[in-house]
Design goal:
Distance between the termini: 44 Å
CATH superfamily: Phosphoribosyl-AMP cyclohydrolase
Shape: globular
CATH topology: Ubiquitin-like (UB roll)
Strand content: 35-45%
Helix content: 10-25%
Number of helices: 2
CATH class: Alpha Beta
Radius of gyration: 15 Å
Number of strands: 8
Largest sheet: 4 strands, mixed
C-alpha cells in the first residue's frame, strides 16, 4: 500500500517539499489525512496548518501555489515527499524561494537567498 501511517505522528506527518526540476528543498510542512486526500485529488499541495488549526492550500493567499508532479513516501510510511512546480517563484511566506534561506557559517548566520517578493505587499500586513 501507498498509504501514510498518520497514527504514527498523532494524525500529522511531516511533508518535505522539493523543486521538481532542481531538487532544492523549498519547505517542510505537515499533512493530516484530509490534506493528503486534497493534495491527491487536486494536484495542488495542501497541508494542515498547526497555527490556524485548519487545512491550508499552499499559495491560497499569495498565489504561489505548488503544483505536485510527484509524490513519494519513506520506507516507514511516516514522511511524505512532494516534488512540485512552484508558481510565483517563492515558497516561503517571508518572500524567499525556499524557507531554508539562512545558513550558519563559522558560527554566524548568513542570508543565502534572494527575496522574490515583499510579504507586506503580498499579505497586506
Amino acid at each position: 500500500m501507498f498509504d501514510p501511517d498518520f497514527e504514527k505522528g498523532g494524525g500529522l506527518l511531516p511533508a518535505i517539499v522539493q523543486d521538481d526540476q532542481t531538487g532544492e528543498v523549498l519547505m517542510l510542512a505537515y499533512m493530516n489525512r484530509d490534506a493528503w486526500q486534497k493534495t491527491l485529488e487536486t494536484g495542488k499541495a495542501t497541508f494542515w496548518s498547526r497555527s490556524r488549526n485548519a487545512l491550508w492550500l499552499k499559495g491560497e493567499t499569495s498565489g504561489h501555489v505548488q503544483l505536485v508532479h510527484e509524490v513519494r513516501m519513506d520506507c516507514d510510511n511516516d514522511t511524505i515527499l512532494l516534488k512540485v512546480h512552484q508558481l510565483g517563484g517563492a515558497a516561503c511566506h517571508t518572500g524567499y524561494r525556499s524557507c531554508f534561506y539562512r545558513k550558519l557559517v563559522n558560527g554566524v548566520v548568513e542570508n543565502a537567498g534572494v527575496r522574490i517578493f515583499d510579504p507586506e505587499v503580498v499579505y497586506k500586513k
